[in-house]
Amino acid sequence: MIERYTLPGMGAIWSEKNKYQKWLEVELAVCEAWQKKGEIPEAALERIKKKAAFSVERIEEIEKVVKHDVVAFLTSIAEYVGDDSRFVHLGLTSYDVVDTAFSLLIKESLNKIKKDLFSLKEIIKKEALRYKKTIMIGRTHGVHAEPITFGVKLLVWYEEINRHLRRINQAIEVISYGRISGAVGTYIHLDPQIETYALAKLGLKPAKVSTQVLQRDRHAEVISVLALIASSLEKFALEIRHLQRTEVLEVEEPFTKGQKGSSAMPHKKNPVRSERISGLARLARANLQAALENIPLWHERDISHSSAERIIFPDTFILTDFILAELTDIIKNWKIFPENMRKNIDLTRGLIFSQKLMLTLAKKGLSREDAYSLVQKNSLKAWNQHLDFKKLVKDDPEIKKILSPQEIEDCFSLNPYLAKIDFIFERALQNQS
Q1: What confidence tier does 5 reach under pLDDT thresholds 50, 70, 90?
Q2: Which of 97, 98, 85 is nearest to 29 (CA)?
Q3: Element (H or E) spanning 340, and its range?
Q4: What does CATH list as the number for 95-187+202-253+268-344?
Q5: Closest to 355 measured CA to CA, from 341, 342, 368
Q6: Closest CA relative to residue 240, chosen from 133, 331, 308
Q7: What is the CATH number of domain 351-411?
Q8: Which among 211, 278, 283, 343 could disulfide-bond with 300, CB atoms 3.0 to 4.6 Å apart, if both were Cys?
């Protein structure tokens, strides 16, 4: 038997060679199950296990004639095994092999995504702790709101990845099933014990009931998890893109030695890798639509799902794995500009403290509506006339009647915005590895 094909990278998992290797593993597990039932001589099984191999090139050559990939695969195996090949594929239909092997491929791929996600999570956690108290402006609708910290922004990402890790575990559970139950799932030429034994050897469980295929809601769930992951990665990348804008410049993608940002403008440093992530994430979401369309099949099965799956599964896994690696490298090597974060807090000349001022006035006995109107009047004046908000507040006779100079000063302090950061981190990181 040829050695199991193992090369690094998601592309190797979805190579033709690895696909056929998985098919072979299924066939050999079934042969072993038949031998346990006394249907294949032990000596024949040993010869099959020793000789079983295939040639991708030969399979492709045969398939051009027979127009059936599983038949071509079995013919290639028979050329290596010889007379004992009559025991291979005993009682099986093509999708006993193909669908079960497909589950193995998906499971292997999900485990790689899980490992990559965990690596990204740990890097984000490190950066979140590093910038835990690095204060910056929070933005809603793209407009300055109130101060937060860069660490809290990253902690949101960290917790989002934790949810994806839970979804990955669920997807692994959902796809850890096979079916070796014949042409329409009724075991007419098989014994259910064959299925139980073979699948256990492969690390899978038997579907409680199946048709000629495993039901495609399982596969759609897998793609939906990948689409969710890709969408979150795009969300993180989009934040980097916004924060790298010249007017903001709080974060910057790595710009390596010799890199060029533009063919025309030598000064350019563009967030091209984050933009690439955004583009590829769209493909993952688009592929989910095809996976959902694959759920309804005619009766016990038609082949409409097969052609789409040959594209959407390798593509979605490979692009998700790629953008995971891209974002991990970006975050590992990005540039952060705390001085610009602090400078941007001052852009609105104190307007970001309007809520604190309003609440302080309300605590002093002013109705919320009156406090809001009083603060908004000064806020709009500061905004429209490019004036310092704190100075306007200090000079406002109505406010001066209610608040002392020190109370006004306290409304414009950044310190309170750091007061509960430790609490947020402790809650998010509690019981997390």
Answers
A1: very low
A2: 97
A3: helix 338-345
A4: 1.20.200.10
A5: 368
A6: 331
A7: 1.10.40.30
A8: 211
Residue 125 has pLDDT above 60, yes or no: yes
SS (H, E, C) 369-400: HHHHHHHHHHHHHHHHHCCCHHHHHHHCHHHH
- Three-state DSSP class for residue 282: helix
Confidence of residue 193 (pLDDT cuts 50, 70, 90): very high
Model pTM? 0.93
What are the helix (H) ranges across 37-184? 42-51, 56-66, 69-81, 94-130, 150-175
**Does residue 4 register a pLDDT over 70?**
no
Closest CA to 28 of 44, 13, 12, 45: 45
**15 φψ region: left (φ > 0), alpha (ψ -120 to 50), beta (else):** beta
Q: Taking 80 as the threshold, does the pLDDT of residue 2 lie above it? A: no
254-282: pLDDT as tens digits: 988 888 888 888 888 999 999 999 999 99
Q: Are strands 335-336 and 251-252 parallel, antiparallel or unpaired?
A: antiparallel
Q: Where are the alpha helices (DSSP H) in 176-303?
A: 192-202, 217-243, 272-293
Residue type, 254: P
Which residue has 């688009």 as its token pair? 286
74-78, Cβ contacts within 8 angstroms, sequence gap of 24 or more: 77/24, 77/27, 77/52, 77/53
Domain chopping of the chain, boundaries: 10-90, 95-187+202-253+268-344, 351-411
Whether pLDDT at 174 is above 80: yes
3-state secondary structure of 207: coil
CATH number for the domain running over 10-90: 1.10.275.10
- What are the pLDDT digits (tens) for 210-257? 999 999 999 999 999 999 999 999 999 999 999 999 999 999 999 888
